[in-house]
Every structure is written in structure tokens, then in C-alpha cells.
Design goal:
With about 375 residues, the protein is mostly beta strands. The chain is about 0% helix and about 55% strand. The protein has no helices and 30 strands. The strands form eight sheets. It has a four-stranded antiparallel β-sheet, with no helix packed on it. A four-stranded antiparallel β-sheet has the order 6-7-8-9, with no helix packed on it. Strands 10-11-12-13 form a four-stranded antiparallel β-sheet, with no helix packed on it. Strand 22 and strand 23 form a beta hairpin. The protein is globular, with a radius of gyration of 21 Å.
Length: about 375
């Protein structure tokens, strides 16, 4: 088990702290870029989770009232702004949420359960995916929030700027469909998710079929249309998708297939499984997140070793164990900083509770104090 150290001690070098520019007025200081390690997740307060935002070594920010249940499930950044996806519960149904910095904006009205699981920002717009119930049917959803990236945004303009797009119609008899990841490459939006069908889990990928035109009016949003891409091969192996990323040419997917009763950690490129798989099929393992960085393909997740769940990061198929196998752990999210450091967010049990952690190049930093259950669910390095 890695020794936990403060995030501020982890090297995230960005070159000189100060740049100098020469002009007709003489020498003037150029502000150095700021590099923030941003992590979202949750920590329990009593019997329920509270959505958390951690930035560098600052104390955690509660995105939801500690008296109410909530979780922060995904994060994105644009400039100095941080956007978080998740949900909160104010005593009724779960409400899908997006936070711009610390400002909450509900995506749904609370009339049915809903959660936002992931977020991507393109230009001034934010795109979130998750699910919302329609009667007894759980429907995969995409929400577009127009203008969320503008410098000054008041929650008063919503819900007029929120466009909700069902990815499934809730009429096919399938009671459980969710979208859990989104990636944007140029004009293409891809979403992955899973459908719980009678015959077993069905992995799903959706792609937009029409590119929305430039918006003459910020809040007159054209309808987004999505189509389901062909299913992954080997449906008998009940693949499950947890994450996807597009690099402009190829679409990478991560999750697992079931072979001989075990989950096998698997990556797909354009629908074709990459060989060999990331685990050998003798115990359960899964990819939970992936990241394309130049020519390198990173994945994070877990693999069971002697009955203990070990947090893993794979680089181009080569595994690295983040934990020593004495306690259950998982690397839930992975990213690469602009200067090449590999960060993973996740959790490791301390014998009593799950501790939220972030690993930088394999070195762990604890985000929670270990006195209640907590998880880090997404991480990014925001340079601005």
C-alpha cells in the first residue's frame, strides 16, 4: 500500500513560474499558468453520501448540503471554470445536477429519479449524460446546457437553456438503460452505456447523426438526434462498457467481457476487442476508465488477486498495481497531465472504511480522513 502524501507534494511541473515579455513599455510580468489537480466524488456524512470537490490541498468543498444525499460523478474544465456532474436528493427523488464551480444548476425537476454521470464541455456548451426514469423505465439521457461556459452565468436562465435528449425511448420493455460516459471529437458526440436486457447486459454506444448549426440565439437550441451504433461483437460474452474516448480518428471503449464466469478487463478500438485482453480471465477484472494520450492508451480499473480487489493502471496493456493487495481498492478514473504525469482517482479500504485517494505516477494521496466511506470518482489537471 502506497504511503499517502499531500497533493501539493506531487510533482506537476509546468516550467518557469514567471515569464517575461519585452515591449515598448519595458519589461512586464506575464502571469504564470496555474495548474490545479481537481477531483470529485463523495464522502459519507452519517448514513448518506455528500458530493465533494477537492482542488489541490484545499479543504473539500461540499457541493450538496451535508443534510442531503448527493454525489459528484464526473468533472470537466474550461479555463478557470470547473464543471461537475452528479445528483442531489432534497428528500424526494434524485435530481440530476451540474455545478459550475460551486453554483448548482438542476437538470431535472425532481418529478422522477435522475442522475448525471459524466460531462464534457465544448465551446460554450456543456453536455452531460446519465439517466432519468419515465414511469418504471430507466431511460438513458443526454442533457445539453447551452452557454454554461460563458463567463457570467446566472442559474436564473435555466431551465430554458437545458435541452434534454432521450437516447432510448423507454417503450421497448427494457427497464434499466443508462449512459455513463461521453466524449466529443470535432463535431462528433459519442456516448456509451449499458442496457439490462432479459438475456443479459447489452453494451450500447450512441453517436449524433446531425451536427447542430451555429446558434443565432444562445437559447434556441436545435434538436440533437442520436443513433445507436452496431453492438459489440460476442454478445454472448455480455460485454459491459464503462468508458469511451475518441481521438478524432478512432473510438476506444473500455469495460469487461464475461468469459467462463469471470469478468475480463477489455479494451475495444472501433468495436474490435484489442488483443490480448488486459486480464487473463482467472479472476474478475474490469476497465473502469481509459485515456488516450498521443500514441499511448491508458486504462484504469481493478483486478482481483487472491480474493482482494487491487487498483490497477494499464499503459498500452502493461499493468501497474497501485495498491499492495492487502485491502480492496479500485482506480476509477485516469488522466494524463499536460506534462506527462499519470493521475488516477479511486478508493482504497483502510480495514474499516473506503478512503478517497488520488495516485500520481503511482504515489497515493488520501483525500478523506478514513473515518467514513468516501470515493474519488474523477480527476483532471486544469491548466489555466
Amino acid at each position: 500500500m502506497s504511503k499517502a502524501i499531500p497533493i501539493s507534494k506531487l510533482a506537476l511541473g509546468l516550467g518557469p513560474l514567471l515569464g517575461l515579455a519585452l515591449g515598448c513599455g519595458g519589461r512586464s510580468a506575464v502571469p504564470a499558468p496555474v495548474s490545479d489537480v481537481v477531483v470529485v466524488g463523495y464522502a459519507y456524512a452519517g448514513s448518506h453520501p455528500v458530493a465533494k470537490l477537492w482542488v489541490n490541498d484545499a479543504p473539500a468543498v461540499d457541493l450538496t448540503d451535508p443534510a442531503n444525499q448527493g454525489e459528484a460523478l464526473g468533472v470537466a474544465a474550461s479555463g478557470a471554470d470547473v464543471f461537475t456532474a452528479g445528483y442531489q436528493n432534497l428528500g424526494g427523488n434524485d435530481i440530476a445536477m451540474v455545478w459550475k464551480n460551486n453554483t448548482p444548476i438542476p437538470l431535472t425537476d425532481g418529478s422522477s429519479d435522475a442522475k448525471a454521470s459524466a460531462i464534457a464541455v465544448a465551446g460554450m456548451n456543456a453536455y452531460l449524460v446519465g439517466y432519468q426514469y419515465s414511469g418504471e423505465q430507466q431511460v438513458a439521457m443526454l442533457w445539453k446546457v447551452a452557454g454554461l461556459g460563458k463567463a457570467q452565468v446566472s442559474p436564473a436562465i435555466y431551465p430554458a437553456a437545458i435541452q434534454a435528449t432521450p437516447l432510448t425511448d423507454g417503450t421497448d420493455g427494457v427497464s434499466n438503460v443508462s449512459a455513463n460516459a461521453i466524449t466529443i471529437a470535432g463535431q462528433d458526440i459519442y456516448v456509451s452505456g449499458n442496457e439490462a436486457a432479459a438475456a443479459g447486459n447489452v453494451a450500447m454506444v450512441w453517436q449524433n447523426v446531425s451536427t447542430p448549426p451555429a446558434l443565432p440565439d444562445l437559447y434556441e437550441t436545435p434538436v440533437l438526434n442520436f443513433k445507436a451504433l452496431p453492438a459489440l461483437p460476442n454478445p454472448d460474452q455480455t460485454p459491459s462498457l464503462n468508458f469511451l474516448q475518441a481521438d478524432g480518428t478512432d473510438l476506444y471503449l473500455g469495460g469487461y467481457e464475461v468469459q467462463n464466469g469471470f469478468r475480463v478487463a477489455t479494451l475495444w478500438k472501433d468495436g474490435v476487442p484489442l488483443a490480448p485482453p488486459l486480464s487473463d480471465g482467472t479472476s474478475n477484472a474490469s476497465v473502469v476508465c481509459l485515456c488516450v494520450d498521443g500514441q499511448d492508451l491508458y486504462a484504469s480499473g481493478y483486478a482481483y488477486v487472491n480474493g482482494i480487489q487491487v487498483a490497477k493502471v494499464w499503459k498500452d496493456g502493461v499493468p501497474t498495481s497501485l495498491t499492495d493487495g492487502t485491502q480492496n481498492a479500485s482506480a476509477i478514473h485516469v488522466t494524463v497531465s499536460p506534462d506527462g504525469h499519470v493521475l488516477a482517482a479511486g478508493t482504497e479500504n483502510n480495514g474499516t472504511f473506503n478512503v478517497a485517494k488520488v495516485w500520481t505516477d503511482g504515489v497515493a494521496a488520501a483525500l478523506s480522513d478514513g473515518t467514513s466511506n468516501a470515493k474519488a470518482l474523477a480527476v483532471l489537471v486544469n491548466v489555466h
